Amino acid sequence: MKQASISKAFLSLCAVILCCSMALASPLDKRGISKCYKKNARITQYWIPKEGDKDMNNNGKSVTLNGSKTKTLKDRKGKTIAKVSKTTFEKFQMEGTGLLKSGTMVNLGESNDVFMKLDRGETPYGLGSSGNRLVPWISVASNDIKKGTKLYIKEMDGLVLPDGKKHNGCVRVDDEGWSMGGCQLDFFVLQFNAYKVLTNKIPSKVTVTAKSCTIKDYVTHSVKKWAVLSFKALYNIF
Fold first, then answer.
1. Which of 4, 10, 55, 118 has its CB surrounded by the most CB atoms within 10 Å?
2. Where are the domains positioned within the chain?
3. What CATH number belongs to 122-228?
4. What start and end residues bound the annotated signal peptide (predicted)?
């Protein structure tokens, strides 16, 4: 009798906890994304800092990624990948990735001071979480939507990108963001210059729905040139 009473009490407690958890969690739509995305989703942008380019530091101050090469990018074995300026090194750390003038692209490794060289054939525009390849103006980072989910952003349908191509509003979750909260997307725009153009075109809050939309190619010849890509590194990025 005592054991049965304890069991009933335990089950009742579990039911209360479950109900509270369900009440506190954001409701999901039929495709499994929070309903807050339908009217109040925050959108930010991220890019790959490139050695020699203009960029901005952690405080939003304009900087140029050049100067005396006093810092060393090292791999997990301590082998030197390249020497870069302090500003460049810190920006690569901040973004978690970086592009050298030589065309070598690096990603943070197992610590904040360890980098690894990326295979430009496999990941020509950078590496997302779980080994996902990033695709400019397609990839978004999210901490509460399943990887690979296609999303339609209403406010980006018809958006003219810096190189003149028109976006259809369709993006895909390929990444996560270490500094992001829920109900937020971080849009991969590849270049700082693209960020400067688009920051005045994309509103801070957008309408997002999970949708089986069509992924388009927005990469132009000038983008490939900026990314220091050889022909062999341009296959099958989708």
1. 55
2. 44-118, 122-228
3. 2.40.40
4. 1-25
